[in-house]
Model the fold of this input.
Amino acid sequence: MSTYQAPSPGWFDEFRTAPFPTLYPELKTSVTQDVLYVGWGVAFLSAFIAFCLILPGVDRSLKEQVKVFVRVTTFLVIGLIIMLCNFGQEWEVGHIESHTLYKAGSADEIHAAIGVKLGLRSVNITLKADPEGSLSGEKIDYNERFSWEWAQGRAGFGPFAGNIQREFRAAQFRGTPLPILWIAEYFTFDGEGIRFGRHYRTAGWYAHICVWLAFPLWILMGVLYKLRIDYAALTTALTGGLLLVASIIWAAKRNFIELVVPFNDADLTTQFGKHWYLSLIMGVLCILVGLVLYGLHLCGFHDELSQFFGNNPLQILHQETSVDAEETPAKPTNEMEMEAVDSSNNLPPPANAPKNPVTLLRSRGTTKRFNKKVNSPSYLPPARPRPPQIPPPRTHLAAPGTSTSPPSQSGYE
Done:
């Protein structure tokens, strides 16, 4: 009978008794954070920290550095709120504590904290408890997400059903606790007045379109503030309008019957969450800021706005200098006479002399129909004195064969 010869000890064989690699059991952990949600926050925070590190090196005065800090910080905060509202899971929230059954096939009850969080794309259901009795030692900390993006699907729980129906059936096979299944089942019904899943899915669809559209407008807004402040102000107001519309759609498109899930000790209901309020408040603020900046632009505070945003007000303008009236063309005549020389400088200007110059400021890319006449001495070069115009001597041309001497006085009598 042969015997097993253990291999010689290696570098990584310390504290091992079996002649094979160590196998560890599955370690189940509860969900702590949404990776995508936290990722957006870390991205904007990294950009803000990098900006704060380079801000002291800006070769400007303290007042200018404060202006730059306010502009960049406001710009980053608006973008961060847009993305947090897009991927946040607290557009609508609900929370209760109640005694409830734990799992199917067991009579054990737990006193648990039950929560529901509704986002634009899914619903999160949490269950947390400190078990006692026969369940002591078991960790009860669940966070299950049921997504409804984006098709409604067929009725039932088959392969062609909606996403949330199929995820609900998979959770049943996994043995998910009963309180989570009890809440998720309300979003799988689709008949009569119980269509919570359909209405929340539709509301999330249109709201997430508005929020996603606000994101490229936010980028365009940052570019336009260095080019055209009036266009940037309108873009800011439009960005806020989309966030406001997203909040209105979510509030208006909900099921006409309120979501109420009964438990033993309380009924689980929902209220608007922080992301709904963030979208609403940021939308109103962006609209107000955009309208105020556009109003200041219309009132003529161009220099002040350009100074605050660090722009050159003339970098986007074409400057053309012309006259008020066109020159009058000379009339044709057959006489060729030269007037006498007048040595005095107090001569009247010619009839066809140009008027005072006028500066035309036209934005780049616009046509001449949108020219704006600006009689502003600050944009004109200093006026130069006009030299006196001395007319040529007046001469009389005689007919051929006649005397060239001027006619006598008697010739005119």
